[in-house]
Amino acid sequence: MTSTPAPGTTRPGGRTARVREAVLRVAGDALAEDGFDALDLAEIARRAGVGKTTVYRRWNAPGALAADLLADMAEQSLPRSDTGSLHGDLTENARLVVKTLTDERQGRLFKALIAASLCNAQAAEALHRFYEVRIGEWAGCVTDAVARGEIPAGTDPRAVVAAVSAPLYYALLNTGAALNADDADRAAAAAVAGARAGVWVGEG
């Protein structure tokens, strides 16, 4: 028995892909400007120049639209770095996080999506999936470092990668501090030091 995909989870092509691109662009702008409450499907359809019926049929709720937006962002994110060292790779990761969070549009967009995840189950699931995909992408930096003998065998790759971005998101959401390259470099260095010390051995 086949199951029906959840709204906003299929990957279309052709004209449908162009419709999706237009709607997600407008939805992202609305989120960045006014937050999750601005995701009125009829208004999004109007601003995107798309039929309202098409939008309701494909996404059916603001949460599904936010979920598809996050899925698209995960697809568009840059692949992990491969500098030849754990410190170099995690520094690149941290700098990418800071670049994203300090971007005028992307920073506001992430704040809106995080806020949406606190009150909308679809948005929460999508946000968790987004970070699972991105952490999984960068986990290879850690497994490569284990293979090179930089850090102990048994180190949990996902825990190390999560440790890089955790202090940066904390600063963004809880302190309001303006992030910069020094913050990125410190976060990466701390994660590398912890990994070398075996902090995340056996965590997976």
UniProtKB/TrEMBL annotation:
Protein name: TetR-like C-terminal domain-containing protein
Keywords: DNA-binding, Transcription, Transcription regulation
PANTHER family, sorted: HTH-TYPE TRANSCRIPTIONAL REGULATOR RUTR, TETR-FAMILY TRANSCRIPTIONAL REGULATOR
Keyword rRNA-binding: no
Organism: Yinghuangia aomiensis
Domain HTH tetR-type, chain residue ranges per copy: 17-77
Pfam families, per the entry: TetR_C_11 (PF16859), TetR_N (PF00440)
Residues of the DNA-binding region: 40-59
Keyword hit for Isomerase: no
UniProt cross-references to InterPro entries, sorted A to Z: Homeodomain-like_sf, HTH-type_TetR-like_transc_reg, HTH_TetR, Tet_transcr_reg_TetR-rel_C_sf, TetR_C
Database matches in Gene3D superfamilies: Homeodomain-like, Tetracycline Repressor, domain 2
Annotated PROSITE patterns: HTH_TETR_2
Organism placement in taxonomy: Bacteria, Bacillati, Actinomycetota, Actinomycetes, Kitasatosporales
